[in-house]
Specification:
Elements (H helix, E strand, L loop, with lengths): L5 E3 L7 E3 L3 E3 L9 H14 L6 E5 L5 H8 L3 E5 L3 H10 L6 E4 L10 E7 L8 H9 L2 E12 L7 H6 L7 H10 L2 E9 L3 H20 L6 H10 L2 H10 L2 H15 L9 E8 L1
Helix pairs in contact: 1-10, 3-8
């Protein structure tokens, strides 16, 4: 199969699978965004070093990463409060074994998961310490936390407003948060440099316009958050371009470039890996 081919996954519905970018649902206006693909490459690089086990993902959005992790042997529960995200995730994961989608954590047994994942979630929550501390109770002693957040408060921009963020994080903020919640930090990686930095500046005006179309200040934080995880209407239009052979080659070069800077602080987001004490 060439890089350009999108083949039907062993799912029903409109799910397609790109050889390098993973699952997509173009008919439901969800395709993997370039920034997501940069983050995904780093996350999968970390998870390939882990022994598959039971994983809880908070804020699973479209469920695309759960599909990737299931393919690596993980069993998983994905939780997302957004009805639109749940709908897309369930369609994305039809036929995928050992994955469950839920609206809440209610009924999940404490200390029953080997891994806890929360990718681009903490920044959407006003009291991030309370949230992380609450989620930690579902993780076994010695279990692993993987969480990603947008980096550098000084880079706050219209995309943060559009997505319903409360904050961006410094490296020290993220480490302090994890340690206070009972974790021992093992790694903090900074992804996206240099391409995502340029894209973030370039797209600021687009996101400002999208926010105005959604209703601007009249749209509450929860509505912004829910839409940010499941609506890729704009990207769906250009998906045929960046999922093509040239686009795939370009993204693979981007992945190689960002690997040289993961241990620094020049990118647009942090991924923290920590172990529950």
């Amino acid at each position: 199969m060439t890089d350009t081919q999108l083949t039907a996954a062993p799912h029903q519905g409109s799910v397609t699978r790109h050889k390098h970018f993973g699952p997509a649902l173009p008919d439901a206006n969800w395709v993997p965004a370039p920034r997501y693909l940069m983050r995904r490459d780093v996350i999968l690089g970390v998870t390939r070093q882990l022994v598959p086990g039971r994983l809880l993902e908070i804020g699973c959005g479209s469920g695309a990463l759960l599909d990737d992790l299931a393919g690596m042997g993980f069993s998983a529960v994905g939780v997302d409060e957004s009805p639109s995200a749940q709908r897309i995730a369930r369609e994305m994961l039809v036929g995928t074994p050992n994955v469950e989608i839920r609206a809440t954590c209610d009924g999940l047994a404490p200390q029953s998961f080997d891994y806890l994942a929360a990718f681009e979630v903490l920044e959407h929550i006003e009291d991030d310490f309370e949230a992380l501390s609450d989620w930690a109770r579902y993780l076994k002693s010695g279990g692993v936390l993987m969480a990603s957040v947008p980096a550098h408060p000084e880079r706050w921009n219209p995309a943060d407003v559009w997505a319903g963020h409360y904050r961006r994080y410094r490296r020290t903020d993220l480490v302090d948060l994890a340690e206070k919640a009972g974790f021992k930090v093992e790694a903090v990686l900074c992804y996206g440099f240099p391409v995502a930095n340029f894209m973030e500046r370039l797209s600021a005006g687009v996101y400002a316009n999208q926010t105005r179309k959604r209703g601007g200040d009249e749209m509450n934080q929860d509505e912004r958050t829910g839409a940010s995880g499941s609506d890729r209407n704009l990207l769906t239009r250009i998906w045929p371009i960046y999922s093509s052979f040239p686009g795939t080659v370009a993204m693979r070069l981007v992945w190689k470039a960002q690997k040289m800077f993961l241990n620094g602080d020049r990118g647009v987001g942090y991924l923290i890996v920590a172990r529950k004490s």
